[in-house]
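Hello, quick one for you while I still have it in my head. A protein chain has come my way and I'm curious about its shape. I'm sending you its amino acid sequence along with the backbone structure tokens. I'd be grateful if you could look everything over and explain what you see. Here's the protein in full, and shout if anything looks odd to you:
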Amino acid sequence: MAHLKPSLTEVDPVWHRICEEAEQAIADEPLMGGLIHAGVLHHKTFENALAYRISMKLASPEMSEQILREIADAAYVAAPELAAAARADLVAIYDRDPACHRFMQPLLFFKGFQAVQSYRLGHWLWETKRRDLAYFVQMRVSEIFGVDIHPAARIGKGIMIDHAHSIVIGETAVVGDNVSMLHSVTLGGTGKEDDDRHPKIGNGVLIGAGAKVLGNITVGHCSRIAAGSVVLAEVPPMKTVAGVPAKIVGEAGCSQPSISMDQILGQIE
């Protein structure tokens, strides 16, 4: 079956690699041919494939796949930074997740990647004042992926959410670049206040499974939050915090904890 490949004049190594992996995957498992052709090889660009995948996941009897795909296609044309962030997220997952062996996997199979890209679409809608559509996207992301990110939240690039179950990120939260978090993380508020009330997560932070960061507090760059911690106070850069409530228990242990994914605390005094 014929399919669309990047032309020789196009420079998109991520998309080129995905297409090569897709061809090999079909050779290895022909029963996956229909899904992989529809999800990858029928598309000319990474943006087209991403719009298709998001629309297929978010579609419902209330909003068709075709309408959602037109919205996503328009977003990627109007805001190229969305697809650039998606490429950075995909590479981050490949680099940090030992269960990811191909670039193709996050696009087709990983709900953490798909949920973040859906959030990015919702955030673009929010920023362009299409608030009800943004809320619809948030609702569907929560229903389909178990990930609830308010469309007003600001999230950087190079994001990995591993397992991506029961993630909550509030309206005024800010997440920097190259952040890694595991399942059941909450970046939440502490009451009914309606102003700036959610955490600000610096670049390169690693947030362990089940951690809760609550309130308008800053978590400094390249810090670590241990699994199960409840963080209620500022975290200085390049520190490790643990406990309920969380306290500083040491240095971050390395220059880039979100990339190394080292969650071992070592000896705690």
The longest strand covers residues 247-251. The chain has a mean pLDDT of 94.
